[in-house]
Amino acid sequence: MNPTRADLIGPLDMFKIGIGPSSSHTVGPMIAALDFRKNVIDQHIKKLGGAAGHRLHVTVELFGSLSATGQGHATDGAVCAGLIGLHPKSAEPDAIWAAMPSLESTGGIETGRVKISFTPSIDILWQGFLMDGNALPHPNTMRFRLYDSDKLISECLILSVGGGFIETTDEAGKRRPPEKEESLATVPHPYNSAAEFVEQCVKTGLSPWQVVIENQESLGMTEAQLRKNLNDVLDTFSKCIMRGLNTEGILPGGLNVKRRAKGLYQQLLEGKMPAWAGSDLRPSVYAMAVNEENAAGGKVVTAPTNGSSGLIPAVWRTIQESNGLSQTELQNGLIVASVIGALVKVHASISGAEVGCQGEVGTSCAMAAAGAVAMLGGSPYQIEQAAEIGIEHHLGMTCDPIKGLVQVPCIERNAMGAVKALNAAALSLASDGHHLISLDRALEVMKQTGLDMNQKYKETATGGLALG
User: Fold this and answer.
1) What is the pLDDT of residues 433-443, one digit of tens each?
2) CA 238 to each of CA 221, 233, 258, 373, 377: distance values in angstroms, whole numbers, following the listed order
């Protein structure tokens, strides 16, 4: 199901444990390939009852932004990992990145006693921005095909729509509308806008996170289950920061970008930072630590995407260190942050290929600001204001990574976004929460800005900073 209502999108949808370097170009394609294996390949083999007399063959076509920057994002490696049955949350990075070399040498996918012909260098096709001469249903479109000898048995169009979310298409190749069951889903505290969310908090007298918890319980996710999984998210945040703070070297991809987080952190500990920085660059350094791990293909959390995965962990760690927050309070912050991410996903986009980096770092900044205000005791009005400030000051930000790698300018954008989020939270906490531009209005502008933005500035590596 692809929900079109924010109240049906839960915290665990927005915060997914996965693999770097990109949620839309790595995590999404890996999940799509795994989905194709389970729902098409495995089902077809069951129908055959054996491989005798059959020569099965798979091809994968990557379109749009996936074809333009997919090699820099390791999309081909992720597809291979999914096709051999690996999931980005449960599989170890070494196993994921070993999949493509293995398939290249063996030339086939093993499933049960059946071997399906698939050689990545031949059968992964980079196809550009048209499909059979027609416009794409989404900038990140994949077409998976299963053949028996030369006969096409099955074809699936799958879209990677940001944050590790995937969608399918209808028979006409258009984005499939939500399943009918969604219209039947009910929650005790319905909302599909920021104004409605604030209204639910005020009307019920519940804390903002409790509104979400009760909605999730009505959809089958108990509070205990939710908090256990959010603890896993927080643990992944922490481990990722520590790996980044303790690792040196050059990031993969050919840009020869040097890891900086460890050296900066050492300067911070020794008090060598410039006085005007308050001798505290913690938010920026923590964000860079995570994003360097992401760029290296390590374990990260979509927050809401991989390209913006360092911002929220950095803000959470900084606030926890400064204010001594409990695990429960940190979880509450994630729950509130997820509301903002869901609103952006429904009313604008969290995909850099659709709306530029405003949808990734901009969204993460807004989520972090709102979550910070919630953790520090702010009102629903102040939470909404903080999120709006975070979005407003990222409007129009392009997605133009050099060589399509999630490195330059992505790593530093997370560092700057973390500082902006903390400032947005501080500004809203120092006010009464009433402001001129609503979050809902900012999201309308964000969507329109993304539509107006030239394609070369939307994760295609064909314009802006990507030209060097």
Assistant:
1) 999 999 999 99
2) 25, 9, 22, 21, 23
Which of 392, 5, 363 has the alpha carbon at shortest distance from 185?
5
* Alpha-carbon distances, residue 155 vs 61, 159, 227, 239, 289 (angstroms): 11, 13, 39, 40, 40
pTM: 0.94
Name the residue among 299, 284, 319 with its Cα closest to residue 26: 299
- Taking residue 179's Cβ as centre, other Cβ atoms within 10 Å add up to 12
* pLDDT tens-digit readout, 357-413: 999 999 999 999 999 999 999 999 999 999 999 999 999 999 999 998 999 999 999
| Cα gap 241→17, rounded to integer Å | 14
- The amino acid sitting at 25 is H
Helix (H, G, I), strand (E, B) or coil at 438: coil
The CA distance from 185 to 468, in Å, is 49
DSSP label at 27? I
CA dihedral angle for residue 458, residue 464, residue 466, residue 467, rounded to 10 degrees: 140
Contact yes or no for 18/27 (Cβ under 8 A): yes
Question: Which CB contacts under 8 angstroms, 24+ apart, belong to 257-266?
Answer: 257/295, 257/407, 257/408, 257/411, 259/292, 260/288, 260/292, 261/285, 261/286, 261/288, 261/289, 261/292, 262/289, 264/288, 265/289
Residue of 371, 347, 351, 344 whose CA lies nearest to 230: 371
Distance CA 349, CA 370 (A): 18
Q: Which residue has the tokens 């399906």?
A: 116
Element (H, E) at 62: strand 56-62
CA dist 42 and 212 (Å) reads: 37
- Give the Å distances, CA to CA, from 249 to 116, 192, 267: 38, 45, 17
Residues 40, 144 contacting (CB under 8 angstroms) = yes
